[in-house]
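Journal club prep — side note

Before the paper discussion, L.F. wants everyone to see what a predicted structure for a comparable chain looks like in token form. Sequence:
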Amino acid sequence: MAQKRMFSLNVVDTDKFLEMPVSARLLYYDLGMRADDDGFIDNWKKILVFTGLKEDDLKILIAKQFIIPFESGVIVIKHWRLNNYLQNDRLKPTIYQEEKSNLSLGKDNVYTLDTKCIHSIDKISIDKNSISVVEEENKEEETTTTSKEIEDVKNEDVTLLEFTEKIFGRPLGGTEIEVINTWEDNELTRYAIKQSELARAFNVRYISRILYAYKKENIKTVAEAEEREKNFQESKTTVNKTLEQSKKLKQWENISKKEASPEEINELKTLLNEENKEKE
């Protein structure tokens, strides 16, 4: 299966696509990155688990006719051939030939389903085999999925590139992929990627700077990285307190010179009250 996928603006830049919730659009990209060379996907439930998206997002994609479902539980991306093209000598045919036989490819390179095979969303196997049904079966067997197990899926069952895409919530470009390929795939690197999520800094340069700092400071474990982050936050708090104290001193100086405004006096009183509460 090819490792690179594309998305046509003729699909993802349409009003029909952009009107969908962000979560449904992100799911479309994730499905597109993991489909086989003919656009078929059979592990959509696993994709939902490690992306944290919902089954409703998949139903929206089906209702908006971006995804075609089959009774077998397999789905196919309707505009796959419009998004991607592989030469015959590089294409690995899908193993879902029976489902593919029910499709036709129009001149516009869009899959259409034989009308005899069309099923309503309420009757398709996505509902029959839905996550909610699986969870009910798991409850009966007293083997529910824990948050730790889900985290393990997120962390261990995906490549570093897939993990980064999950954190960023979007497919990555060529330059970004080249940078990621230079990183070591270990717990420390994935911890650094998670730090970018906390900082809402979704770019590989930010992560590269974190990894460079780890290397410069000889940090080799997640525990050491967490200690570094703790020390940084403590020093940040100290700096903020110092700035507040400087501000108070300046206001006291203005009061002594009778230059303080009523607003400055009230602000100073508030700061002093907060400080006294902390001491108590």
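L.F.'s comment for the group: The CA atoms of residues 83 and 263 lie 61 Å apart. Keep this in mind when we get to the figures.
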